[in-house]
Write a structure and sequence with these properties.
- By secondary structure, this protein is an alpha/beta fold.
- Helix content is about 30%, strand content about 25%.
- It contains nine helices and 14 strands.
- The strands form three sheets. Strands 7-6-5-8-9-10 form a six-stranded mixed sheet, sandwiched between helices.
- A hairpin with a 2-residue loop joins strand 2 and strand 3.
- Helix 5 crosses helix 6.
- The chain is globular.
Length: about 325
């Protein structure tokens, strides 16, 4: 999968003007052999129904409301399927704020992360929120609850020293997906992260299928802006230039991973450049959580394979939706 990167230990120059960035990457990206593999969940659908959440926006980026079943087209492996159930989904949302908790957040992103407080206040009163930190693994800091005042307090009191040197992003995300598989309703993970991933390479073999087939939407918010700032102009050694090139490659792969996660699950990715853009991003995400259509169809082939999905409207609007589902085998009960 593009964006899932295999990192080796980095040896950086000790003396340069961007020493803090180099220190972070040295600590945060250990060898894969030091990490532990977590079992990946298997995500399937009911034999009689496949549910697909769809967010529809027009060319101006505004959410399109008031659509009917006849406005949508759903394709399974390229073949159009009749829509059996349709709902303009105003049910309460299950929202997980999943934050990278490690050196990068402590050094570069704490203030902008905590601006997500405004996102919580923009949610509907019945929406439930959880707060999850990850570094070597995912840790629930605040369980799913409609007590939004308590969730805001938990966010403000996060301790960014709690993370370890590992940043096992994809491994941690799979654990969150496994947890959410038992939670009913529409589910959204808001991933606030640099995109750097040191998960074991074995995770990659199942990660793509699991992330694509899940009914959880992932919205990604990058925190890597500060890390991307070029060093001040001065004469740099060959070792410093190599270190910078390694850093740029890691951050580029991280950006690709965040984009791929969002695209595969029908979400969106954001790369804010400053405090105002973070505020705008969180305000838009609060609206995305609410504006969703739910489409269902009966799978025509029970073959136990991954099927691609495509959703369009007859009006040509932009539609965000998950890209695949895992069909049950014909022997399923």
């Amino acid at each position: 999968m593009a964006g899932l990167i295999e990192l080796s230990p980095l040896v950086f120059a000790r003396r340069c003007q961007w020493q803090l960035i180099v220190l972070f990457l040295t600590v945060a990206c250990p060898a894969f052999s030091q990490a532990q593999e977590a079992p990946a969940p298997t995500i399937r659908v009911d034999v009689n129904r496949v549910n697909v959440g769809a967010v529809v926006t027009n060319s101006g980026g505004k959410f399109v409301e008031g659509l009917q079943k006849s406005d949508f087209r759903v394709f399974d492996n390229g073949a159009e399927q009749p829509i059996t159930e349709f709902l303009a989904n105003d049910d309460p949302a299950q929202v997980v704020l999943m934050l990278e908790c490690g050196p990068s957040m402590f050094l570069f992103g704490k203030e902008n992360i905590q601006k997500a407080d405004a996102l919580i206040t923009s949610l509907a009163p019945a929406d439930r929120v959880a707060v999850v930190c990850y570094s070597s693994g995912a840790t629930v800091q605040f369980e799913l609850s409609a007590d939004q005042s308590a969730s805001r307090l938990a966010l403000r009191e996060l301790n960014f020293h709690i993370g370890s040197g590992d940043l096992n992003l994809t491994q941690s995300l799979l654990a969150v997906f496994a947890w959410l598989s038992t939670v009913p309703g529409k589910k959204t993970v808001i991933l606030i992260s640099s995109g750097v991933d040191s998960s074991p390479p074995e995770i990659a073999s199942q990660f793509q299928a699991n992330i694509s087939a899940s009914d959880v939407r992932v919205l990604t918010v990058s925190t890597s802006k500060e890390l991307k700032k070029p060093p001040k102009k001065h004469k740099r050694s060959h070792q410093q230039k190599e270190s910078r090139a390694q850093l740029d490659a890691i951050l580029k792969n991280g950006d690709n991973l965040l984009r791929n996660l969002a695209t595969a699950t029908g979400g969106r990715s954001y790369f804010p450049k400053g405090p105002k853009e973070y505020e705008k991003t969180y305000a838009e995400i609060a609206q995305l959580v609410r504006h969703e259509y739910n489409l269902s169809f009966a799978p025509q082939s029970l073959d136990g394979k991954l099927h691609t999905l495509r959703v369009t409207t007859i009006h040509g609007h932009r539609v965000d939706y998950r890209q695949a589902y895992l069909a049950p085998p014909a022997t399923a009960n």
